[in-house]
Amino acid sequence: MTHQAKIPGALNVEAIRGEFPILEREINGKPLVYLDNAASAQKPEFVIESVAGVYRASYANVHRGLHTLANETTEAFEAAREDVRRFLNAPSADQIVFTRGSTEAINLVAHSFCQKLAPGDEIIISQMEHHSNIVPWRLACDAGGLVLKWVRVTDTGELDYEHLADLVNEKTRLIALTHMSNVLGTVNDTARIRTIASHHDVPVLLDGSQSAVHLPVDVQALDCDFFVFTGHKLYGPSGIGALYARGDWLERLPPFMGGGEMIADVFETHVTFADAPHKFEAGTPAIADAIGLGAAIRWVERHDRTAIMEHERALMDRAVAGLSEIDGLRIIGTAQDKGAIISFDMAGAHPHDIAQILDKYGVAVRAGHHCAQPLMARMGVSATARASFAIYNTMDEADAFVDALKKSREFLI
Ligand SMILES: Cc1ncc(COP(=O)(O)O)c(C=O)c1O
User: Fold this and answer.
1) Is the pLDDT of residue 9 over 90?
2) What is the Å distance from ligand 1's center to 31 Cα?
3) Among 198, 212, 222, 250, which residue's beta carbon has the most beta carbons within 10 A?
4) 18-27, 58-67, 252-261, 346-355 — which is least confidently predicted?
5) Nearest CA to ligand 1 atom 7
6) What 3 state SS string does the chain have?
7) What is the mean pLDDT of residues 321-326?
């Protein structure tokens, strides 16, 4: 299979592919067609080398030592924080907390923010959230007697903004919504969310796990209070991500976890805390992975982000055109503004079977509830199959996916 077809924009996809060693693999005797990018993306040599380089040449614990290696590692770790700041266009690196990923970042906000709330206060999420943006709020609500409210999703997979406006009232304390759905691909209208939130001066958290990969992100333009994302979907290491918090939120919120490095002083009777962001980074962090995330960001920044978006959308359009020829195939999520994620079901075939047969053709897709069970219930399915595209995918791969799916259908139905 050749991997090159006409790609719009300025990306040299063939050269980009050459930077990802894993893409040379064959799966079941076929070239790997990796379309499980919404779950986790593959890593370029630049990121792999950056992480390996830490352990090989310059590794020690951060923020603690006075020796050369400790200083070098601390510098590289803090430089990665600056990479995150620049990537998000946050005003200050002190507004960036390293976390294990989006999940930990949302748990941090849910835990710290909700501690100060009173029974009856309300938090708004939506039916299209990943479990990471549901369960932390459920836990906080149950612990504090808070009320969790759900914005409805329309049949096409868009947020029902009028319903959101109806839900917001003087008891609403926070709106936590995904920026881009990991199942539907829907890109939510953040300006509209902000306008609705502003009527009652409600802070907004955006889950940027998918959007940070596929869209240019500017937290100041988004005008959000909190933004979270995760490194492994952004061609970076797993187990590392970040939280951005606007203004002095990090000063005002109580700590999430206690331990070393997040304190100013510890006495037998009480503890005082370090300034943000360190107040939220208890214990030894994922040092090499944070440095690897910085490398991933610098790698992504080499490419024109609008060109990436157009390339991925062209891949999606190509696949959607092919899928429309398959009888009984239904795409779940047809929003106007949509990133390169296609969830579908096929009458008479279970998504798990589809994924397994596609694997025989070397095509990796995800099948299941995608950690979004309330959304599955809303869309009337228990699971879907999902193909999700990344910077290194090609038109030939979009075609290979459709061909393999047609063959799977013949086999299954
Ligand atoms: C929309 C969304 N939110 C949150 C997460 C959780 O990310 P992580 O598991 O890296 O914390 C994911 C990952 O699938 C996601 O797609």
Assistant:
1) no
2) 28
3) 212
4) 58-67
5) 102
6) CCCCCCCCCCCCHHHHHHCCHHHHCEECCEECEECECCCCCCCCHHHHHHHHHHHHHCCCCCCCCCCHHHHHHHHHHHHHHHHHHHHHCCCCHHHEEEECCHHHHHHHHHHHHHCCCCCCCEEEEECCCCHHHCHHHHHHHHHHCCEEEEECECCCCCECHHHHHHHCCCCEEEEEEECECCCCCEECCHHHHHHHHHCCCCCEEEECCCHHHHCCCCHHHHCCCEEEEEHHHHCCCCCCEEEEECCCHHHHCCCCCCCCCCEEEECCCCEEECCCCHHHCCCCCCHHHHHHHHHHHHHHHCCCHHHHHHHHHHHHHHHHHHHCCCCCEEEECCCCCECCEEEEEECCECHHHHHHHHHHCCEECEEECCCCHHHHHHHCCCCEEEEECCCCCCHHHHHHHHHHHHHHHHHHC
7) 96
Catalytic member of 114, 141, 224, 371: 371
How far, in Å, from the CA of 368 to the mean position of ligand 1? 15
Residue nearest atom 15 in ligand 1 by C-alpha distance: 209
What is the pLDDT confidence band of residue 2, given thresholds at 50, 70 and 90?
Answer: very low
Do 221 and 324 lie in a common domain? no
Ligand 1 mean position, distance from CA 103 (Å): 6
**Residue 181 Cα, ligand 1 centroid: separation in angstroms?**
10
pTM above 0.85, yes or no: yes
> Quick one: 277 and 339 in the same domain?
no
Q: What is the pLDDT of residue 297?
A: 98
User: Considering its fold, how many domains does the chain have in total?
Assistant: 2
Q: Tell me, yes or no, if 371 is annotated catalytic.
A: yes
- Is 1 within the bounds of a domain? no
Domain containing 99 equals 49-301
Within a domain: 5: no
Q: Encode pLDDT of 80-107 as tens digits.
A: 999 999 999 999 999 999 999 999 999 9
Average pLDDT, stretch 242-267? 97
Task: Let me know whether 256 and 336 are in one domain.
Answer: no
Q: pLDDT tens digits for 154-165?
A: 999 999 999 999
Q: Are residues 296 and 312 part of one domain? A: no
Q: Whose CA is nearest to atom 9 of ligand 1?
A: 103
Query: At residue 3, does pLDDT exceed 70?
Result: no
pLDDT score, position 201: 96
What residue's CA is closest to ligand 1, atom 12? 209
Task: Note the pLDDT of residue 63.
Answer: 85
Residues with CB under 6 A from ligand 1: 101-103, 130, 132-133, 178, 182, 207, 209-210, 230, 232, 241
